Amino acid sequence: MESTSQTSSKSQPIAAVLLSRAHDPEETKRILTEKIQQRPLFLTPSSPPPSDARAARRREREKKRLSRKKALKPKPLSANERRKLGLYDVPRSGQKYVLFEPLHQLWLGYIREILGNEIHTGGEGAASKLTSADFHGAEVEVVRSGCVSRVGLKGIVIKDSRFTFEVVTKKNQRKLVPKEGTVFRVEVPLATVTATAMGEEGRSDDNKQQQQQQTEAEQPKMIFEVHGEQFQFRSADRANKKFRSHFSNIL
Q1: Which of 16, 118, 143, 230 could form a disulfide with 12 if both were Cys (CB 3.0 to 4.6 A apart)?
Q2: CA-CA distance, 20 to 83, in Å (whole number)?
Q3: What is the mean pLDDT of residues 38-43?
Q4: Which pLDDT score, from 0 to 100, does residue 126 have?
Q5: Cβ distance 196 to 168 under 8 Å?
Q6: pLDDT, tens digit, 9 for 90 and up, residues 56-112
Q7: Rounded to an integer, what distance in angstroms lies between the CA atom of residue 59 and that of residue 69?
Q8: Which of 186, 162, 156, 160 is nearest to 174 (CA)?
Q9: Other C-beta atoms lying within 10 Å of the C-beta of residue 157
Q10: Above 70 in pLDDT, residue 208?
Q11: pTM given for the model
């Protein structure tokens, strides 16, 4: 008897054997017939075959043309390839403070437009807009840092990466300042510098520079301090990130 039952179970499909363990024979037979053996198989119809040889050749030529066009399309460089090619590096001849002063003036106009009327009042709204802004071209000053030698360092930001600010100082030196453990000060003048004396003829360049420095010193400014540890995002990522106000444990 045992050999006969084993032989019959081997001849049955595995689905029938498994169903027989959970259902009676009639229910097993019904489920096997309706749900498994006679179950319809739905297929997604493909494109219709070409009607003649000419249409088949045309379709084959079109397929080859698309594949060739895709192969000839240049692929974008990866971040590692860009670094190897030095696309992010500033040449030594371009590490001059004077070259980036126009960029700083553009950034001042950009940040004034973003802050709007809140540049006069400050507050949480101005802080959230400032943290979401792009800092390429901003003039930052290190006021607090874990490394004492960095305190007082001031320059224009030429590269705003995730963990560092790369700045060019007035001495035409390129400095890499980590954001972690550093507090940066940003000064935004309330209005553009307008000095009619700078356009007068007969004045020397030294007098014009002194006049400009005096005008900038007398100009009212809004001063912000940014904690670098809470600023460790790329500029593109900060634009879409929402910052919430909270108390900081960093003094």
Answers
A1: 16
A2: 65
A3: 75
A4: 75
A5: no
A6: 888 888 988 888 888 777 778 887 888 788 777 778 888 888 999 999 999 998 888
A7: 15
A8: 156
A9: 24
A10: no
A11: 0.58
Q: Tokens 């689905």 map to which residue?
A: 15
Q: How far apart are CA 78 and CA 134, in angstroms?
A: 23
Give residue 199's pLDDT: 46
Amino acid of residue 51: S
Query: 3-class SS at 180?
Result: coil
Q: What is the CA radius of gyration of the chain?
A: 35
**pLDDT for 3:** 47
The residue behind tokens 């050999």 is 3
For residue 39, the tally of other CB atoms under 10 A from its CB is: 8
CA within 13 Å, CB half, 233: 16
Which residue type, as a one-letter code, is found at position 136? Answer: H
Distance of CA 242 to the CA centre of its chain: 14
The contacts found for 208-215 with CB under 8 angstroms, 24 or more apart, are: none
Q: State the Cα–Cα distance between residues 150 and 16, nearest whole angstrom.
A: 78
